[in-house]
Inverse folding.
């Protein structure tokens, strides 16, 4: 034992560190992981992740969207929310091409249907084809459940109607956003974007308020 102590004293600093690591690395790793876990738990308690007050899915949005600004951050600020406590979760990474037989398209369609069914989408926006796909299965709230009567009249030419393929029944489930709307201004879409609220939305009132904001109301 005395010999080992003497050898350790005579080692260089680098040698001592290498010796300690060789013999105690498992214990040191355990201590490091334990400390990291404690720090993580404390940080989550002191600085919890912001609560998602709205889940927005934008299909076929441009990859560089938001370069000119972020409508959702502006909305939170203008409405008096605290971004450190509340946030809007935006999924703008789904792209559906024109070739429906494409395997990638099939995956996106399955993802959209699954997200809609389990209530992960509060507000869905995209081109007319996206709204047709979800709407034809009665996937949206009817627009008269979303907008007040005066706005239904004001936007009567912008209301979007879909047809259920089995019954042939038509219902108004979405609305075309006006030219120059915030999504267009921020580069998510060039024009002709349609938006609706899935009937499974977990935050339908917040989705309604966001839709009104996008309409400029």
């Amino acid at each position: 034992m005395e010999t080992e102590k003497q050898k350790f004293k005579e080692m260089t600093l680098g040698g001592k560190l290498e010796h300690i690591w060789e013999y105690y690395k498992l214990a040191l790793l355990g201590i490091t992981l334990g400390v990291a876990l404690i720090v993580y738990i404390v940080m989550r308690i002191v600085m919890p992740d912001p609560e998602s007050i709205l889940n927005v899915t934008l299909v076929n949005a441009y990859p560089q969207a938001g370069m000119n600004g972020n409508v959702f951050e502006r909305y939170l600020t203008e409405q008096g929310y605290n971004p450190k406590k509340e946030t809007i979760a935006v999924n703008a990474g789904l792209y559906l091409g024109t070739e429906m037989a494409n395997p990638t398209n099939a995956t996106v369609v399955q993802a959209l249907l699954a997200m809609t069914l389990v209530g992960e989408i509060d507000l869905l926006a995209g081109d007319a084809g996206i709204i047709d796909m979800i709407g034809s299965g009665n996937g949206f709230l009817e627009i008269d459940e979303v907008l007040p009567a005066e706005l239904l009249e004001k936007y009567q030419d912008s209301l979007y109607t879909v047809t259920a393929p089995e019954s042939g029944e038509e219902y108004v489930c979405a609305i075309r956003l006006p030219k120059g709307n915030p999504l267009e201004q921020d580069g998510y879409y060039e024009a002709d974007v349609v938006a609706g609220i899935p009937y499974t939305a977990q935050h339908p009132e917040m989705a309604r308020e966001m839709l009104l904001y996008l309409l400029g109301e």
Notes: Residues 42-48 have pLDDT under 50 and may be disordered.
